[in-house]
Every structure is written in structure tokens, then in C-alpha cells.
Amino acid sequence: MSLPVLYSFRRCPYAIRARLALRYADVPYALREVALRDKPADMLALSPKGTVPVLHLPDGRVLEQSLDIMQWALKQRDPDGWLGAAPTSAINTWIHDNDQRFKPLLDRYKYAERHPEHTREGWRTQAQAMMLAPMEAQLQGHPFLLADRISLADMAIVPFVRQFAQVDPDWWGQEAALPALRQWLDTLTGSPLFQAVMVKP
Ligand SMILES: N[C@@H](CCC(=O)N[C@@H](CS)C(=O)NCC(=O)O)C(=O)O
Predict the structure, then answer these.
(1) 13 CA to middle of ligand 1, Å?
(2) How far are the Cα atoms of 37, 70, 91, 113, 139 from residue 82, in angstroms, in the given order?
(3) Which pTM was predicted?
(4) Which residue ranges form the domains of the chain, and what is each CATH number?
(5) Ligand 1 cavity residues, CB under 6 Å
(6) What is the atom index within ligand 1 of the atom nearest the CA of 18?
(7) pLDDT digits (tens, 9 = 90+) for 135-146
């Protein structure tokens, strides 16, 4: 029996969220680690837009958006109820804000030299106000973003916050305004699930 094939890049936050959902749902798959500068022709034939992750299913379907891969995986199996842990509208709003508003600020913070309209600290301040402070407020109320337990929103967003934290680990480690967010990041990234999907291929 052929397995789904996941075209992935280890450090890509979109690919990480896809791998998290597939592993959580216990979906076996063949991992194809892609060099972003030299994408394989078979991947580009399936998905000409050229981003990872891409999931090629045995029935021929191609899922080429990380969220579609997460949703598909959770339809196969959702043992801890990531979909039901919070209202769908709230989950979608948080993920939308992450993908459409936070990610561009994260990129500007990370590659500040390419975005001289603000300093690196300036981009960081904007990202903190836009995303990290509202997350901190949520996490003051419960250990996960929308509830006492993990929802899809936590797992779709955590790879991006991880990347943000890695830009300046010293700042991240001592920023007084984000204690609950730091705890949340440590809990999720320290979990066996997260560790398993970050193993070097
Ligand atoms: N909307 C896409 C975004 C995926 C994406 O932008 N992935 C990046 C890597 S993190 C990529 O493949 N970029 C293409 C490149 O760098 O050539 C998704 O959710 O899957």
C-alpha cells in the first residue's frame, strides 16, 4: 500500500504545523525533505506554486496548503479533540491573524536589514503589540490559547512563535511582559510530539 508523500522542509513553520497534525493523527507518510533552492521536479509538477508543505495522497489528490493538510489529518483522527476544544470561528480568527498579520511582521523582524523602514526593535514592538500581547492575555486565563486544552489554533501557531523567539533568544528569555507565552512555547515545543517532528531527516 502506498503512503501519502509529504514534501517538507524541516525548519519551515508551515511544514512543521503539517507534520505536527499528521503525526498527532497517527497518519503514516513518506517524508521528502526538500532543498528550497533546488525543489524536486516531481513536487513542482504536482504543485507549481513551489512552496512546502505539499501532501500527495495515494488517491492522487494534492494538498498544497499547510492548513488543508492539518484539517485533512484531523479528519482522519483527532484523539484529543483539537478541533472541538474551542469554537471554530475563534480557531480560524487566531490562525488567520497569525498567517496574514503576524507572519509578515515576523519576517520583517527576522530580516530587518531588508526592511529599513523600521529598526529590528521597531518591527519586534509591532509584532508584540499585534500578536504576542493578545496571546499573553489569553494565556493568563488558561494554559492554552483558547481553552484548558490544546486546540488546532495552538498547534497551527506555535511554529511561528518558536521562530520569533529564536530571532533574539536573550530578549525572548527576559522580556517581562510575556511569562505565560514563554511557558506555553516551552510546554508545546518540549512535548514528545513536537520533538518527534523536529528530528533531523
Ligand atoms: N500558504 C502556504 C505557505 C507555505 C510557505 O510559504 N512555505 C515556504 C517555506 S517556510 C516556502 O516553501 N517558500 C518557498 C521558497 O522559499 O522558495 C502554506 O500554508 O502551506
Answers:
(1) 9
(2) 34, 10, 10, 38, 17
(3) 0.98
(4) 5-79 (3.40.30.10), 88-191 (1.20.1050.10)
(5) 9, 12, 14, 36, 50-53, 65-67
(6) 20
(7) 999 999 999 999
